[in-house]
Structures are given as C-alpha cells and as structure tokens.
Fold this protein.
Amino acid sequence: MTEENMNVLDHLEELRKRILIILTAFLLIFISVFIFIRDIYGWFTHGLDMPLAVLGPLDIVVIYFSLAAVIALALTVPVVVLQIWLFVKPALTVKERKVTALYIPASFLLFIGGLAFGYFVVMPLVLNFLLELGTGTFEIMLTADKYFQFVLRMTVPFSILFEMPLVIMFLTSVGMMTPAAMKKNRKYAYFAIVVVSVVISPPDFISDVLVIIPLILLYEISINLSAIIYRRRLKREQNENTPVVK
C-alpha cells in the first residue's frame, strides 16, 4: 500500500470518527429533549388561543418525535461545527486555528439568533395575519402537524440566513470573496433581500420592514467583517512574500 493510499485511509478513518461523534451527540441530545417533550410542546403552544387538533393517535408520536428531532438538530449545530474544525485543524496554521476557533460559538449564537428572530418576530406577524384573514369566512382549526410545519418554515430559513456573516468571512479568508465585490453587488443583494422578505412576510409595509431591515444589517455587517478579513489576508500574504534580509 502506497503512502498516498495510507493518507487517504487515515482521512477516511478520521472522517468516520467525526461523523460518529456527531451522531452520538445528536442521539444523546434527542433522548434528553424527548424526556421533557411535553413541557417543550406546552411552551411552543402556550401563546395560541385555540387547542391544536390531531387526526389520529399516531400523529401524537410523530409530532413529539419531529419536535424533539428539530430541537436536537439545532442543539447539535455547535458539535457539528466543532467536529468540522477538528477535521480540518491539521491543515491550518497556528494563527488560522485561533481565528477559526471563534467560528464555533459564533455559528451557534447566530443560528439561535436566527431561530429566535423567526419565532418571536416573523412567525407571530404571519400567523396573526393569516388567522385574521380567515376570521368570519372560515371555521379555523389548527392541527398540530400543520402548525409545527408552519413554525419550521418561519424559523429555519432565518437560522440559515443569520449564518451569512460567518460564511462571508470564510469565503473571504480563502480568497473567494472580497468586500469590493460585495459593495459592487450591493444593489442586487438588497433586491434579493427585499424579494425574500416580501415573500415570507405578510403583505403589509410594517411587516416587510421588520424583516428587511435586520437582513440588510446582516449584509452590511458581513461587508465590514469581510473587509477586516481581507486586510488581514493581504497583510499575511505580503509578509510571506517579503524576502528576509540577512
């Protein structure tokens, strides 16, 4: 067996180890969450003015398992990021390890921040609008399955969008993104943000603004972070290319 083949096998073994750690963490968190799933279910539904219906006895189990799985997945995010970082760590310099290590808690905070923004800001706006739209016309009855599908659609996209600053920082650090390019394409980014915000929020001006402004702020923060990373990368490359005078 050649040395190259041995290196590939070592990498595959290391990857398998990281995946097993992630799956184990997810399973343990899932079990822990499921123990308190009725309390968690009550917390998610405490603001509703009507009880949630189920269409069959198995729906109860499916809903509990789905809710526990989603929460466990969210809580496993820092473990996933940590294992990815540990996998690529040998290829990083000491300085890169220190910088990228900050991505681990930051990614979790941004992920939770996106979930919180979707759940506490966007979801109530959309839900109240839809319920008021049907008042007097339809007999409204919410099933637990449809309600939690709605919750996921109103929260998960924001948890992903809120990771934008970290993604931009990473792309800048590897040379795939520059702050100048982001500034040049700002109007297109703003247009995309407005379109996404209008699609997922109720059709009224206030709701649209409440969604658009945070996403635009995230984009502007990403530009500033990209500029910092870009300057540091240029400085590092300049130092590496400067000949040492003996």
Notes: The longest helix spans residues 205-241.
